[in-house]
């Protein structure tokens, strides 16, 4: 099970997460997010990170031209589409794509079959926010054949990581708000405690 730490806005948090073993670091380029970072600032952080950690750019309903331009300029490895993007939108992205879906009690999992050539991330639905809510959805309703394929997000913390590892077994987890002092700033102790538990699963 891989780990992505999202909502990174400064080099200190990025290096802390890398040194503790994260597989991927996420930068949010959605201006309405409380964890928004300007691409130029993300580029400075990315230039100081080792090559072997994945740099993920999170976009919401952005044009493929802008996504591709930013991705190339700051040297992202993966693009995460966290809005209402269609299957055809994915074909216009130059980098590998993670397509996020916001799940509520009425979510139709069959929609995933319409999306090709991408990985899937499942997050909690919120009327006001595209991710970063700190809330989880009903994980046990994820179809069994999908559980080990998806990236799981939404309300993941030190308190439920063992349950996720034992019962959901996703390919990766995406963690953000549970490790923060405030939006965009990680709590070093929380991050260290989280990886201490994770590394001993």
Q: What form results from the Cα inertia axes?
A: globular
- SS content category: alpha/beta
Largest sheet: 8 strands, parallel, barrel
Q: What portion of residues is helical?
A: 25-40%
Strand content: 15-25%
* CATH-level-4 superfamily name: Aldolase class I
User: First CA to last CA: what distance?
Assistant: 10 Å
β-strand number: 10
How would you briefly describe this protein structure?
With 201 residues, the chain is of the alpha/beta class. The chain has helices spanning 11-20, 39-47, 64-74, 87-91, 144-147, 161-168, 188-198, and strands spanning 2-5, 24-28, 54-59, 78-81, 97-103, 119-124, 151-153, 172-175, 180-182, 185-186.
Describe the protein.
The protein is α/β, with parallel strands linked by helices and 201 residues long. The chain has a single domain (2-198), classed as Alpha-Beta Barrel (TIM Barrel), CATH 3.20.20. It has helices spanning 11-20, 39-47, 64-74, 87-91, 144-147, 161-168, 188-198; strands at residues 2-5, 24-28, 54-59, 78-81, 97-103, 119-124, 151-153, 172-175, 180-182, 185-186. Helix 3 (64-74) links the parallel strand 3 (54-59) and strand 4. Helix 1 runs parallel beside helix 7.
